[in-house]
Amino acid sequence: MAIKADNRFHLISIKKHSKKYACTNMAGIFFLSFIAFTLYLPTVMSQTKAQQYREQREAMVRSQIKARGIKSEAVLEAMRKVPRHLFVPYNMRDYAYADRPLHIGYNQTISQPYIVAYMTEALDVKPGDKILEIGTGSGYQAAVLAEMGMKVYTIEIIPKLAEMAGENLRNNGYENVQVKCGNGYNGWPEEAPFDAIIITAAPESIPQTLIDQLKVGGTMVLPVGPVHSIQTLKKVVKKDNGIKETTLLPVRFVPMIKSYN
Record's SUPFAM superfamilies (predicted)? Predict the structure, then answer.
């Protein structure tokens, strides 16, 4: 009898332990599932957002750029690839692919996508060309040129913007861009001459110092005109005996300044 009683007691204790173990095991599985879900959800959301941005870039190229006459496949492809939303302030990302300029701080703006594409196409450059950009801003224009295979030297007069642009370009893998903080009117003489020069702020006249740093046969694209009025986008080609200017279209840019305090 003692043996039977002991067996019954032993069996009962095993059943109780099994139930307790099963509950503990289920709780553990639920906890691990919850952790996995919380880790997985941001990844899914991030992938979804990335896909949305890709679709917005494609729509931007199709409706704002190609539809308005930009024909260069190299320019169109670069505009499809460069993540413009990563070159604007976080609170402006929802507007990154809209057909409008955006404020990037320090009274500066990033040009609307069409103007970036238009000026880039007007440069008429090819992979491997050496480009000087005046007015780095957030780094977006430099990124487009770098995406096309150019060697880009870009100057920004506002220290915080130069720092931000450098970070934006590095974070997005654009290693063929050098950023310098300084006065754009001085150019980058130690790296001259350049195949092309693009200026994304408006001087009141074409800076001769920058013409001097342009190769013969090279192209400069820039807005020219006073601060508080409509300016003119110009294409300048350097010749052996001077320059040839072509007026492209009316524009509005921030002024090109010689100092920043």
Answer: S-adenosyl-L-methionine-dependent methyltransferases
